[in-house]
Amino acid sequence: MFHRFLLFVCLSLVCFSLSAQIPSALLKSLESEDWRTRGKALVELKAYLPSQAAKDAIMSLLIRENQEAFPADEFFKRPDFKPAGEANSEQYVDLLNTVASFRDERSATVLAGAAGTGAIVSRALAQFPRAVLPVLIDQMLANPSTNLRIGSAWDLAALMLDREARSKLQSAEIERAKSAFLQLSKDPMWLLRRDAVRGLQAVGDTSVLSLLRNLAENDPHQKVREAALKAVSQMQPQ
After folding, report:
1. Domain segments of the chain as ranges
2. pTM for the complete prediction?
3. C-alpha to C-alpha distance for 203 and 166, rounded to whole angstroms
4. pLDDT tens sequence across 45-55
5. What is the DSSP string of 120-147?
6. Which long-range contacts does 163-172 make (Cβ < 8 Å, 24+ apart)?
7. Of 85 and 104, the one with more pLDDT
8. Which of 41-67 are b and which e, b meaning 16 or more Cβ less than 10 Å from the residue's Cβ?
9. Which CATH code for domain 32-235?
10. What is the pLDDT of residues 21-44, one digit of tens each?
11. Are 203 and 178 in contact (CB under 8 A)?
């Protein structure tokens, strides 16, 4: 038993030694313009986990990839959430999975920069709702990428619907989310107004029913009117 413990300690020390010596050339590869080179660097960096240096490098890579996946735009394009220049999104999904496996507040806030990309990110955000809520709100209201604004609204509403995640939030934080959705309901883009309706329904505060009724009757876009009418029918007291 002692020998097994000693072996474990020795292996841990070896791993720590390796983690402290990430080659500078490997870190430099993360800055390559070629996504294939960055993907290869990610695979090599995993060998240095769970060192903080490797985690930091991998999270920095995700921040870069998110910037390419959600570029600033002047007009709406149908979101496909695929990093620019990639033939497929497998590398991006692998990166999201890797960062999600870190399971801490810092990695969750980095993953918030990929809001709306799917279950991997949504599950990670739900684990640390207090850390990611202000990030999602800021992105939803002010990010230059329309796609990221839509994704942030979607994942913020998902937090409101997740009972366990919501139970970790303070009442002031839920109120902040409601206020953000109210602000979003005035957005010029109908898709964001529709997501605001979904978010207000998720919050579940009946004080917004008059606003939702107004949207159901007067919003210029049919999809928003339909969403608001559905929200009113489900929220109003029976």
Report:
1. 32-235
2. 0.85
3. 10
4. 999 999 999 99
5. HHHHHHHHSHHHHHHHHHHHHHH-S-HH
6. 164/126, 165/125, 165/126, 165/127, 165/129, 166/129, 168/129, 168/130, 169/129, 169/130, 169/133, 170/130
7. 104
8. bbeebeebbebeebbebbbebbeebbe
9. 1.25.10
10. 899 999 999 999 888 899 999 999
11. yes
Rounded to the nearest integer, the mean pLDDT of the chain is 87
* Token pair recorded at residue 10: 């020795």
Mean pLDDT (whole number) for 193-203: 96
Number of H helices, E strands in the chain: 14, 0
Please check whether residue 141 is in contact with residue 164, taking contact to mean a CB–CB distance below 8 angstroms.
no
Residue 20 predicted with pLDDT over 60: no
How far is CA 105 from each of CA 20, 131, 168, 237, rounded to the nearest angstrom? Answer: 23, 6, 14, 38
Amino acid, single-letter form, for residue 70: F
Q: Which of 16, 151, 127, 131 is nearest to 78 (CA)?
A: 151
Residue count of the chain: 238
Q: Which two tokens stand for residue 85?
A: 């220049």
Single-letter code of the amino acid located at 183: Q
- Residue 60, both tokens: 């920095």
Query: What residue type is 129 in one-letter code?
Result: P
Non-local CB neighbours of 80 within 8 Å, separated by 6+ positions: none
